[in-house]
Amino acid sequence: MVESRTSLANISGAVVLAGAGKMGSALLTGWLARGLDPKRLVVIEPYPSDDIRPLADRGIRLNPAAEKISDASALVLAVKPQTFGDAAPALRLLVRSSTLVVSIMAGTTIAMLDMACGGSIVRAMPNTPAAIGRGITVAVAATSVNDKQRAMADALLRATGAVEWIDDEALMDAVTAVSGSGPAYVFLLAEELARAGVSAGLPADLAAKLARETVAGSGELLHRSDLDAATLRRNVTSPGGTTAAALDILMGEQGMKELMTRAVVAATKRSQELAKS
Ligand SMILES: NC(=O)C1=CN([C@@H]2O[C@H](COP(=O)(O)OP(=O)(O)OC[C@H]3O[C@@H](n4cnc5c(N)ncnc54)[C@H](O)[C@@H]3O)[C@@H](O)[C@H]2O)C=CC1
Ligand SMILES: O=C(O)[C@@H]1CCC=N1
Hints:
Layout: E1 14-18, H1 22-33, E2 41-44, E3 61-62, E4 72-77, H2 81-92, E5 100-103, H3 110-117, E6 120-125, E7 135-141, H4 147-158, E8 161-165, H5 172-180, H6 182-199, H7 204-224, H8 229-236, H9 242-250, H10 256-276
Helix pairs in contact: 5-10, 6-7
Bound molecules: 1,4-dihydronicotinamide adenine dinucleotide and (2S)-3,4-dihydro-2H-pyrrole-2-carboxylic acid.
């Protein structure tokens, strides 16, 4: 694959990040860790956090005037879809036809991005484990994106974890529902496991620690194992034992299957709605 050959250190021109909130900051951390020269980075963020501000000492340009950014080779859009309309007029001043525009905004289509700011567009959906280099991003490129731009997008996204390229943009709503929003479902599982532990009589701090380590350790086991999730689940389940008793509830009617299906349908629908707003 051509994409993974480009290193961040080889990028010429500036990489402009618009929006250094939760996801933008995670990308920024990954880029710096993977060797992107801070002097190549421009951050546009009206409310820079205490983590972002000190990066100016490393050479990152924070909120320069638009006319001072004449060298943008990539613009990464990490603002909320709802604020993009207001942000776009200023951002489009940075975009030439050769500028790679990578958007991570949920429900914001390539057609919408093309209308709002132009450029060579890659639409991507990362997730928050990106903050520790363990994210998964799905990306789709507009037909105008050339191999070099696609390789640059791949390098920028791969700095925070795995990248899957798809050809069918229509899949992005379901991708958003599964992997973009997915970490929240796993964290909810940790919350509810702890809460149920307290209901079963455990002290709150012990229940929280057991739930946290169980979710984290199980995730790591799934990550490292060659076995699939169903096999790992069966490996915990002794016939007639405690796990089987719990799974009778979780896998019964109105259980996880039903709940997860409804949750993913709701998130997919919301992503589709954002594309119409
Ligand atoms: N949080 C998540 O798990 C994921 C978020 N996304 C997408 O990432 C984008 C950002 O989400 P979060 O980081 O969660 O939101 P956030 O609210 O933490 O970050 C958005 C940032 O944009 C800044 N901003 C507002 N107006 C701006 C402007 N005109 N120019 C530049 N920056 C501006 C805000 O001050 C804020 O820091 C959204 O479009 C979301 O759909 C995608 C995948 C996962
Ligand atoms: O909740 C959201 O809309 C964003 C997109 C995926 C995760 N967070």
